[in-house]
Amino acid sequence: MRVIVHDLDRRYDGMLEGKCGRMIAADGKYAPCQGCFGCWTKHPAECKMKDTLRQVCRIVGQADELVIVTKNLYGEYSPAVKNVLDRSIGTSTPFSTYRGGQMHHTLRYGKHDLWKVIVYGDITEEEKATFRYRAQRNALNDGFARSEVLFLSDPAELEAVL
After folding, report:
1. CB 40 within 8 A of CB 93
2. For labeling, which of 30, 72, 121, 159 is most exposed (least CB within 10 Å)?
């Protein structure tokens, strides 16, 4: 299943919904992660906060392909997208294993295929390098076989690359 996480305004929802199995709008209508780790221990893969991201761990955990659409903010995800990713920590467990020759948390849902980041807005070469590195590290940490990063000057170009 393809899951899209995006920080675009609502006018893009119709187009995005037709390109995925599930869509998560990083619209800020949810609380940031509280760091309680309840999604790891007390109620696995479910956040204790009763808002639109309560099931985000399960949705992201079942994704074969995770597509993140984010505005560039100094080579990093937008705060709204970062909040969604923070709230999905329950896709792993508190236990550790080796992946890629490094210690990582054990995956709750197994391995996935593609961690794809589509970045829009003005971006420097240094910021592009940061995004590529970040996507590669996120993919490894969350059990994705590969990562890909695309850069767009305007989100209106999005439909052509999905």
Report:
1. yes
2. 159
